[in-house]
Amino acid sequence: MAKITLSIIKADIGSIGGHIKPSQKLLQSVENYIKEKGKGLLIDYYVGHTGDDIAILSTHKRGTLDSKVHKLCWDAFVAGTKVAKAQGLYGAGQDLLKEGFTGNVKGMGPAVAELDIEERPAESFLMFAADKTEPGAYNLSLYLTFADPMHNAGLLLSPEIKKGFKFVIMDVAYTKADRFIELYTPENIYDIAVLLREPGRFVVESIWSRASKEQTASVSTTRLHNIAGKYVGKDDPVALIRTQKDFPATGEVLSPYTIGPYVAGFMRGSHIGPLMPVKKNSAISFFDGPPVVSCLGFSVKDGKLTEPADAFDHPYWDYVRHSVSRKAEEIRRQGFYGAAMLSMSELEYTGVVASLKELEKKFVIKKSK
Ligand code: 13P
Ligand code: 13P
Ligand code: MG
Ligand code: MG
After folding, report:
1. Residue nearest to atom 10 of ligand 1 (CA)
2. What is the pTM of this model?
3. Domain check: are 169 and 296 in the same one?
4. For 80, phi and psi rounded to 5 degrees?
5. What is the tens place of the pLDDT at every residue in 81-134?
6. How far is the CA of 109 from the centre of ligand 3 (A)?
7. How many domains does the structure of the chain reveal?
8. Domain boundaries, position 197
9. In b/e form, how buried is each residue of 89-125, taking b as 16+ CB within 10 angstroms?
10. Which positions are catalytic?
11. What is the share, in percent, of the chain residues with pLDDT greater than 90?
């Protein structure tokens, strides 16, 4: 069995007409860079976009957080940024927040999800990429897939899956270091729910099978404003999930996406909107949204990828997209008001802080007689 690494490194380095989608030329420039400079380093790769974010999926034998693989992707994004600037694309180089490359791209702006795996005879996995939302956007679907038999029939039907899973959950509000907790299903499901209900702070980072001890899921956990100190775009997250056998079936991973949960990230990263499952290489539209998520299935042998199977390209998901559009319409009807906009703590990196500061000066305390 081959030991390989699956890596997704994703960044917004510029897009057409605002935050809609990258140009063909930009996408091609990133792909060409990986194709040429990745020789001898990568076994295989796939480049695609979700909204305005370009994701590079690669397979290699170098392990997670490998400096050469990360530098290759970083340099591909730097080269792409030149193309984006030359074309006058909006937000050219938006997610490349640091100068100069140091070790790996974690904490530099791009989103990263990686898995070190022992390839199974039939290795299938899903590549998720979401735009106009945040890493916690996967919390609910991951919880339902791995802990709820209403979505995961394997919890009842498969003795391996019934053994449960280990959730590693990160506190992304803690900026000094990575702060984690490990919790186990089924015994800790309510504590897991207590944390995951707060997707702006607690984010599933990885999930592990208790039967095989192998990792099934890896999610990017970057918080851009924690790096930049101001609003610089949303932390549009990627995830990798291995499926079948000791892991949930592909359809069990997809099942919760029927809900279209309200998540953070609509317009200026400051509003709540429903998460819409979309086809590969989809653009962004209504109110710079709605928040979208794409999912591509792959099989892999000795690191060689098949072509992607577009998981949300099916008549069923057209129906879901309609019902999610209705949810978007409903929340947009209340504009900036109440639950439609993010809480003050989440808006703390935007201009609303300056307005509040000014208003504070005008508040008076009524003197009691
Ligand atoms: P097949 O019988 O088509 O392989 O499907 C098995 C399965 O478990 C699907 O969830
Ligand atoms: P991105 O983070 O996808 O660039 O979106 C930024 C934004 O503010 C859209 O309104
Ligand atoms: Mg953008
Ligand atoms: Mg984006």
Report:
1. 249
2. 0.96
3. yes
4. -65, -35
5. 999 999 999 999 999 999 889 899 998 999 999 999 999 999 999 999 999 999
6. 12
7. 2
8. 120-369
9. bebbbbbbbeeeeeebbbbbbbbbbbbbbebbeebbb
10. 12, 231, 234
11. 88
